[in-house]
Write a structure and sequence with these properties.
Low-confidence stretches: 90-101, 111-119
CATH architecture of the largest domain: Orthogonal Bundle
Shape: elongated
Largest sheet: 2 strands, antiparallel
Number of helices: 8
Strand order of the largest sheet: 1-2
Order of helices and strands: HHHHEEHHHH
């Protein structure tokens, strides 16, 4: 039995014309949505723009929402569709790559992932940085369905169940997509 959606009363208020409910929804979800979008596009300004567009689209399509899924799932689907469109556009292909790998821990706090470097040998540090850049490029090149599942479960440390709810797919589909993404990453990393 799933828990009731805590955002549904706010969404219903928004549908009835109480625009201040959107402010509360934005406060609740902007952090998680921004992290997801940023990991998808790897450009802070683009991520901020896409986050804003996510809420704008949600607002203008507020009457189309059906409570079959959670409000947060609907917001993530809007964000994912915007990310896909962005990736297809010319500007999406010109995004910058970062050199840090940030993950969300089980307690929900964002942290940079520490990479163990046996000693401070500059050659080893350079090799590690190069490997991270290659890994980010490979993740960016994954098919959209694999990329979204991989980012949500591996980089954001979400459960398969939560990812399934956000993407509106089955848990088994999430497992399959993450498995396929990992296989592609392993294969491409072994070539480099």
């Amino acid at each position: 039995m799933s828990l009731p959606d805590p955002d549904l009363p706010l969404w219903q208020e928004l549908q009835q014309g109480k625009d201040s409910a959107l402010d509360t929804l934005m406060e609740r979800h902007q952090g998680g949505l921004f992290n997801f979008i940023y990991r998808y596009v790897l450009n802070e300004q683009d991520a901020r723009d896409l986050l804003q567009e996510t809420f704008v689209r949600a607002y203008f399509k507020r009457h189309q929402f059906q409570p079959r899924a959670k409000v947060s799932s609907w917001l993530y689907r809007i964000a994912l569709n915007l990310c896909r469109d962005h990736a297809r556009s010319r500007s999406g292909k010109e995004g910058r790559l970062t050199e840090s790998l940030v993950v969300r821990s089980e307690d929900g706090v964002e942290r940079e992932r520490d990479i163990a470097i046996p000693n401070s040998n500059p050659a080893e540090i350079a090799q590690t940085n190069e490997t991270l850049l290659i890994l980010e490029r490979i993740i960016q090149a994954l098919p959209h369905d694999l990329k979204a599942a991989f980012i949500l479960t591996v980089l954001e440390n979400r459960s398969h169940k939560e990812c399934a709810e956000l993407l509106d797919i089955s848990v088994k589909a999430v497992e399959t997509r993450v498995y396929r993404a990992r296989k592609i990453l392993e294969e491409k990393l072994s070539r480099n």
